[in-house]
Amino acid sequence: MANSQPGILGGIPAQARYLTFTVSHNANPTDVLTAIADCYYPEATVIGLGDSLIGYCGKQVDGLTTFPSYSHGGVDVPATPAALWIWLRGSDQGELLHLSRAITNRLDGLMEAEHCVDAFRFREGRDLSGYEDGTENPTGADAEAAALVNGQDEELTGSSFVAVQQWLHDLDYFQSLPQQDQDNIIGRRLADNEELDDAPESAHVKRTAQESFQPEAFLLRRSMPWSELNQCGLMFVAFGQSVAAFEAQLERMTGAKDGLTDAVFRFSRPISGSYFWCPPASGNQLDLSAIV
Ligand code: HEM
Predict the structure, then answer these.
(1) How many CB atoms lie within 10 A of CB 232?
(2) Separation of 124 CA from ligand 1 center, angstroms?
(3) Cis omega before residue 225 (within 30°)?
(4) 76, 186, 204: residue to mutate for ligand 1 pocket, most atoms within 8 A of CB
(5) CA 206 to each of CA 29, 174, 195, 210, 286: distance values in angstroms, whole numbers, following the listed order
(6) Nearest one of 239, 219, 247, 236 to 270, comparing CA atoms
(7) Is the pLDDT score of 151 beyond 90?
(8) Are the C-beta atoms of residues 232 and 169 closer than 8 Å to each other?
(9) Binding pocket residue ranges, ligand 1, CB within 6 Å
(10) Residue 39 — φ and ψ, nearest 5°?
């Protein structure tokens, strides 16, 4: 779609950085939005606005809800809302550092940087567990239909809702498991990425099979591995024309309804969780008309 932020439908970059911000005390909402618009670089950023920021501007975006949290059966899924999310995309980590300095300087006095996480593409697009990530992603027109709003409300057309969840892996544990156990956790064979028909019901791809939901729950996943000191994992990022598909997937993964927890929780756990609304864009401009 011509008026979406290009990074949403674009592929996974070699290098990335995720920045989140809170609104500074007493910041003028108009100044905040003007500064955010200045931080938009079509080739290098995807920008998402949190519910708190949109509310601060006296507006709301239909469909932007609070990220769900779960705590049961050994599974903790936190909700960690933020006002602004910026996904910096590129091929050179130095360039991303300079871009994040420019962004943080432009937002100075209006928004305060909260978190900064560096991420990277692993091989041809694998999770650090070694498994290919994104195989069942919709492509082409299906990707647009899954990820971008295209409804009645013209001001929202081309925008997207993004779920962002930082997962922390225990790779020592995962790699201590026999190969077959690892394959059964994902539900695919590491050797050739084939789906395992006889995988246990808890296997990740069985729990999240997009056609198995009613209605079908298609997402455009654009996750990337991250690492910091001796910790690492997956920055799960999924764009949707609403948050409904993600929410259905996450609920099933936790086993909230049927008590069957996704096996991914055996070696990884989410340490953050937030929703953002990614405004439409045209040319070099972010289109904030829905919230001004
Ligand atoms: C530690 C966190 C996660 C890891 C390591 C992980 C990894 C994977 C892998 C390796 C696949 C198989 C290949 C593919 O189709 O992409 C997959 C599929 C999938 N994952 Fe995840 N994932 C994680 C979290 C999530 C979360 C939080 C959701 C949604 C709430 C999700 C939704 C999906 C979906 C929809 C599929 C495709 C299922 C299908 O239709 O076959 N994943 N994931």
Answers:
(1) 16
(2) 16
(3) no
(4) 204
(5) 44, 19, 9, 9, 38
(6) 236
(7) no
(8) yes
(9) 127, 129, 131-136, 165, 167, 186, 188, 204-205, 208-210, 219, 234, 236, 246, 249-250, 253, 264, 268
(10) -90, 5
* Contact of 150 with 259, CB cutoff 8 Å: no
Q: With beta carbons less than 8 A apart as the criterion, state whether 270 and 78 touch.
A: yes
Element (H, E) at 115: strand 111-120
Q: What is the DSSP letter of 24?
A: P
Q: How far apart are CA 233 and CA 18, in angstroms?
A: 14
Give residue 208 CA to ligand 1 midpoint distance, Å.
7
Tokens matching residue 239: 């764009």
CA distance from start to end of the chain? 23
Cα Rg of the chain, angstroms: 19
Answer whether residue 186 shows pLDDT above 80: yes
Quick one: which H or E segment has residue 274?
strand 274-278
Contact 210, 219 (CB under 8 A): yes
Residues 224, 120: contact at Cβ < 8 Å? yes
3-state secondary structure 209-256: CHHHCCCCCCCEECCEEEEECCEEEEEEEEEECCCHHHHHHHHHHHCC
Per-residue confidence (pLDDT) for residue 96, from 0 to 100: 98
pTM of the model: 0.98
Looking only at the bridges linking them, the beta strands covering 281-282 and 224-228 are unpaired
Residue 2 has a pLDDT of 79
CA of 132, closest atom in ligand 1 = 10
Instruction: State both tokens at 51.
Output: 């519910």
The structure tokens 């953002």 sit at 276
Instruction: Please count the other Cβ atoms lying within 10 Å of the Cβ belonging to residue 176.
Output: 11
How confident is the model over 245-278, as pLDDT tens digits? 999 999 999 999 999 999 999 999 999 999 999 9
